[in-house]
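Hello forum,

I keep getting stuck at the same step: I have a sequence, I want structure tokens, and every attempt I make locally crashes halfway through. Rather than fight my setup again tonight, could one of you with a working pipeline run this one for me? It's a single chain of 273 residues.
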Amino acid sequence: MILELVTYILVGALIGVMAGLLGLGGGILIIPFLVWELPKEGVPAQLLMHVAVATSLGLVVCSALVSGWNHHRYGNVQWSVVRKMLMGLVVGACLGSLITRYLPSQLLQVFFGLFVLMVSWRMAFPKEQLVNRVLPHGTQLNIVSTFLGVLCILLGVSGGSLLVPYLNRCNIPLRQAIATSSVCTFPVAFTGVVMLMLFAPSGLALPEGSVGYVYFPALLGLLLPCIALVPVGVYLAVRLEITLIRRIFAALLLIIGSDMIYRASVTLWAHWG
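Reply #2:
Ran it on my machine without issues. Output:
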């Protein structure tokens, strides 16, 4: 019990720092940890990724709120961009939540692992910013925002891993892209976690403390250290040269993504082989 508590505190602290520092919202670290941890709590394999995604989004709601507020205090949030993308992101979050319940856990896990590998590559070898690209308007932006909202829910991440590079490529400076992404994260994650709590199938074989797909003991165990350390990550983001940090984190993501794909592939092979 003590070892588990210490593990939750350390992981939650790391997630909080990374949420503020890189605008990732923490989901890209939360889900691998939960996939490794939740089977010990009695979560069945066929629901593992669904619970990991929903619980991750619950924590992302809180970390995004703290991170977004702190970035706002530094004046880095482009609120005009938030307003333009808000409706599409929320609609996408609703669609992603409905799709998630019908996909097999192992397929979600492989999808997530491939996504993590892609993020790892882009963090280690970022593309040069396209100087002539600007944020689209109207219908085009709504379509892009909806697509990003769907992916955020299917992957269980806040959108920082998707929104930050997209906004940066649209000529929004990196620090402002991180700050704006942190604010956009909140409505996406909030919509997703509510949908996954209220519209999960009835009679799920989940351990006590679950509401829908959200497993609250894990959520609460990670919550306080995560929130406490988010301001530290934001403080570092506005003061440090983050190129080296991005590459170190990219190496960590490479290991995580490879392991996620391997575990899911072994399970699928055992089931279909």
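The two ends are 37 Å apart (CA to CA). If your local run keeps crashing, start a new thread with the error log.
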